[in-house]
Structure formats: structure tokens, C-alpha cells
Design a protein that fits this description.
The chain is of the alpha/beta class. It is built from 8 helices and 7 strands, in the order αααββαβαβαβαβαβ. The protein binds zinc ion.
Length: about 200
Amino acid sequence: MTPTGLESLIEALRCLPGIGPKSAQRMAYHLMQRDRKGAKRLGEAVLHALDAVKHCLRCNTFSETEICERCASPKRDQSVLCVVETPVDMNMMEQTLAYQGLYYVLMGRISPLDGVGPRELGLEQLMARVMDGLVQEVILATNYTNEGEATAHYITAMLKPKGIGVTRIARGVPVGGELEYVDSGTLAQALRERKACAA
Ligand code: ZN
């Protein structure tokens, strides 16, 4: 039996993080019963975004142009590259106002349990970015979680032999903490107190 429109909608909503069957059902009922206009807007916005949003060829963050505005800015320091896990983390670093360099957004982390290794994470692309001849220091600002640490270790081992300076933001960030939930003062301190990484 083919699923009804409502069933397909409920199933589709479950692709959102943290949404189980009950929440999906509640959201679907709400959209169909109380907010059909909102539902239409949502559907159109998803389709439009899918079409328009790409990844910046230099920093890998979401962008609607080939090179994002930040990467294209002549005001940013081209010699420092800060590696973060997500665009949210990049925004957090920006909010510290303590950083003027460029970024590389991994869009994830090494996580063997989820089947994400260096290849799935696309670390060759990071490598290519770092070897542009301008980057002198890579600041690793991955989370202080097991996966974030593993990712930092892997990138350090990958870049050190290439003669690139690699630093890690200091532990002003709590252990097990995610950048997204750290206040900008703490993050600014962590950035200032970054240390060289042992290979
Ligand atoms: Zn960019």
C-alpha cells in the first residue's frame, strides 16, 4: 500500500535531528490543520535552498556563490586558517571579534562509529586549501569532544610533515564542550591561549 500524503509528510519530517515519530506527527498535523500557508512557504523555501545553496570552494561553508564573501574579503589575514566543525562554530569564532584570519569548515568530524573517516570528511580538500602557499598557521578549533580531539590529532599528523604551523585552541572550552554553547568571552580566551600541537 502506498503511504498517504499525511504519512509521507510525517515520515519526511523525521529526517530532522531530534524529531521522533510523535513530534513528526504533531508537526504534520499542525501544518495541515493550522498553518497551510506556512507549510507552503516551508516547502518552497526547502526547494529554493536546495537549488541555491552550495559550498564555498575555499572554506567549504554554505554559500550561494562559488567563493563566499568572507573568503573573498581583502581585509582578512590570508596566512591563518582556522579549522572548525560547523558553520555555527565559525559564527561563534567571529563573535569573539578576536580573529581576523580565514576559516575551513569541515562540515563534520571524524567519527568511526558513524562511518565518518578522513576520506568521508574530505580532508584532501582541506589539505589542498592549506597548501595554497599563503597559509602559515592552521588553528584547530574542533570541539573538545572525543571526535573533535581525534579530528584535531589526525589533521595535525597530516599537516606537520608539510611544514605548516599547527595550533590548537586552549582549553578555555570545557571538556566535552561544544563551541556552539560556549560564551564568546571564553572562546576568545581559548583562541588567544592556543598552543602548538604535538604531532
Ligand atoms: Zn569561503
